[in-house]
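Protocol step 6 of 9: fold each sequence in the batch and record its structure tokens directly after the sequence line. For illustration, a two-sequence batch is reproduced in full.

Sequence one:
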Amino acid sequence: MAKLTIKIKSYLNIDEEVLAAGAITPGYLIERTSAGKVQAHSTAGGPCFPMFALEDAYQGRKITDAYASTGDYQLVQAWTPTRGDVVYATVKSTSEALVIGSFVESAGDGTIRKYDIASTGTAIEGSHVIIGRAIAAIAASAKGLIEII
């Protein structure tokens, strides 16, 4: 079932407004730039501090309304989830399905993908790239939003 918000469950509301350094869609994994702005997380399989772009409900916008890097709509509603929080994150279209319990990592363009232990050679226990685990499934070659914890 489609959700109407990116923040599904939050025990602590660690939200802030930050200027966008590029186009960002709600549900994207984002990172800070050296200029203090945010952009889509840019390193596929790279370490990250989990932060997600929320929909701008204060302006009446929905999860399908992207933020722009210029003009009036530059302030991104950024959320930093903590343990136990649930986010409706954007999944990259791949040839591999995400099943419930799959570990996920950054796909390098703001989306997330299934963590592939074979390509990294790093055991899950030693990995610093895992963002969370899927608590919903998404079919192979499908791009969409998925709940992760």
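Sequence two, same batch, same settings:
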Amino acid sequence: MDELNQYLLRLYRASREVSLDDFPEHALTLFNELVPFDSARWGTTAIDERGASYQTPWFYRDPPESLQDYNEFREQDTAATLVLANPDITHNFPLAEYYPASSGGLRSYQRRYHHEHALITAHLNAETGLYDALSAYGASANRPFTEAQRQLAEFVFSHLREALRINQCLNIERFRPRGDGYRWAMAICDAGGRLRFAEPPFFELLIQEWPHGARQVIPSELTQIASSKQTAKLIGRSVVFCVKVIRNSAFIHARPRMQADGLSRRELDVARQVAAGLTHKEIAKALNISPATVRHHIQAVHDHLGVHNNAELTTKLRNIDI
């Protein structure tokens, strides 16, 4: 019991202190000290007509190419089917014995990647409709997992999920825009656009902009930005999205569209300079345009935003950027 308590303390401490990209591997390293295994795969899983479809999981001593090879045989994976049909229960599989002889391709895959034994658990995420799944593999046919290890893995899995969520929430707060205005809703996805974490208001805004979109994956317009690894803004019909890619994760900020989002690029440049307190001459010099053009743009901005002075203009601009 003392070992378990120490593990949980270290896990939750790590959720606060370890970076977003490093946390999954760190958490699995701690888990490996509690329940020894040789490799693991942790992430989200969907179900389609071919069976379990892993969504860019984190790999622990398991080659990433194993997932590509698995896709060739995944409709044969009766172990995954059983686990997904019985969520929140850890199953202890002697895979070499469990897979029938008729599933020759899957048995060959299992031997090639040394997945002799497996502790597999899944939990249905009601927010996304995806399963959070963890597979821990033993490489030795003569060293199966015990019932005590299965029970321990089942108990720990909910803590792993919660610690990951805490880590994601804390990292989101580090990148949330500060100010006294509108609170941006945020989400985290991978380069393929698959959501790893999202706040409830983010889903509301996503559905507002794309009423018929799926909750598991962001729309292609946002996925293209995330996969390009560029920081960019997408101004939709009713919602504005800003995407910032940091290492292997894309942070997506979302808020309702505002009047200022309808300004042209030049009008917005001028408006920002006004909000910063620059004079007409200073703005003209900074943007390499004439003072008369500056006055023209400022009047156009006032008309568009329905403001009467620069103080009101500054208030209107306060919430449009991350």
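Proceed to step 7 once all outputs are recorded. Observation for sequence two: The chain has 13 helices and ten strands.
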